[in-house]
Design brief:
This protein is an alpha+beta fold. The strands form three sheets. The chain has a five-stranded antiparallel sheet with strand order 1-2-6-10-7, sandwiched between helices. Strands 3-4-5 form a three-stranded antiparallel sheet. The chain has a two-stranded antiparallel sheet with strand order 8-9. Strand 3 and strand 4 form a beta hairpin.
Length: 194
């Protein structure tokens, strides 16, 4: 099991704008651009990215896949991991600072809250990209990420990931009864190693 920490140096403006509803690579202009800049600076100051990951052997059966720490009947995940021999499983978070900012900004104005949520989502994606790049450097060819809750992979698989990686102990993320993560800008994912 490996624990990582990092830092996002700049918010990917196009990705955040996409989360805000901008299309075709458009980015905020005018007053919204000023709000975006203010929220970005606050989010960058509040971040504390952490991740934990482990690699498991992968075996396929007709009715699903043995991921080394849990068996899944998710045929979508099985298909996604086809051609791989191992699977990396990770949990990543930006920490609680972004959630606190989003809550504070929501009391100020709806537009500030929307911008902060979009920036947090973009930063979470950037952090996952960094974790993915670290895995690629360490293990070579990888599949794209696949998270519980996509396709027929049940969100309840979060419980298995949390147990296997000791997520709460290692990076401070907790799981609600409904399998949502706190802080909210947190992600779990499977990555096939080819």
């Amino acid at each position: 099991m490996n624990v990582l920490s990092g830092r996002i140096s700049a918010v990917n403006e196009r990705e955040a704008a996409r989360y805000m509803g901008y299309m075709g690579g458009a980015t905020p202009q005018g007053e919204v651009a000023g709000l975006f800049e203010k929220c970005s600076a606050a989010a960058l100051a509040a971040q504390s990215p952490k991740a934990v990951y482990a690699v498991y052997p992968l075996k396929f059966r007709e009715d699903g896949a043995d991921l080394g720490f849990v068996f899944t009947r998710s045929l979508d995940l099985k298909k996604y991991l086809s051609g791989c021999r191992r699977v990396a499983v990770f949990a990543a978070t930006l920490g609680a600072g972004i959630d606190r900012l989003a809550a504070a900004y929501s009391r100020l104005s709806a537009s500030s809250a929307v911008v902060m949520q979009a920036i947090g989502a973009a930063m979470a994606e950037q952090w996952c990209d960094e974790v993915h790049a670290k895995l690629r450097f360490e293990y070579g060819g990888l599949s794209a990420r696949f998270s519980p809750g996509f396709g027929d992979a049940p969100l309840a698989m979060q419980r298995d990931i949390f147990a296997a990686l000791q997520v709460t102990k290692n990076i401070g993320v907790t799981l609600t009864e409904d399998c949502f993560m706190l802080p909210s800008k947190s992600v779990t994912a499977f990555v096939g190693i080819k």
